Each structure stands twice: as structure tokens, then as C-alpha cells.
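tool=predict chain=A
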Amino acid sequence: MPPRDHFRAFARRLVALEGSVSAGDAWVQPARVIDLGLGGARLSVSQAIPLGTPVDVAITAPHLWDPLVIHAEVAWVAIQEGTKSARVGVRFQHRAGATLRALTDLLAASVYR
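tool=predict ok
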């Protein structure tokens, strides 16, 4: 098998979806989903989240009644120059097949921005 020329196991798709990110009942903040794949997502958030933090990402999907909530872990953080806002990469931790199926449907329904 030839070596991969990128670091992701799953491809990402550029999207423009609203949502939120939370750490249990401790805090919640709005998030914009910039890219999305089966393995994770890139989010734009108002405040940086520490590396390794377990989070729940809630994605507002146009084809679902309720937000799609996916358990994840913060894999990387990039603070935006001159602001408190940040870009955050999360690695999904799928705990249920239904969530994975809903994410697959969301990716199929999403159009490139």
C-alpha cells in the first residue's frame, strides 16, 4: 500500500455550519464549523480551548430536527493574531453507530462553500 501524503485518515469537506462546543456542564460557546469529516472537524470559536480537552460538538444541520452532538477531543489550537478567537481542530470519538450515520448523511447533504 502506498504511503499517505497527508496526516488525516479521513478526508475533510469545507462547510459553513453553525454549532456549539461544550465541556459537559462547565461551559458552552458558539462555534462555526469550517471543515468536517468522519474523523473530526475544524472549528472557529471565540475563546481558545486547551489541547486535549474532551468536548461535545453540537452541529446544527439543515436536514436534522435537533443538533448532531458528537463527542470529541481537542487535537490542535491556533489562536487568531490580535484577538481571543481561535481555530480548533477536534478528533471525533464516535460512541454510537447512529451518530456516525447522521454525520455521514450530513456530509452527503453538505455542499462545498
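The longest strand covers residues 68-79. DSSP finds one helix and six strands in the chain.
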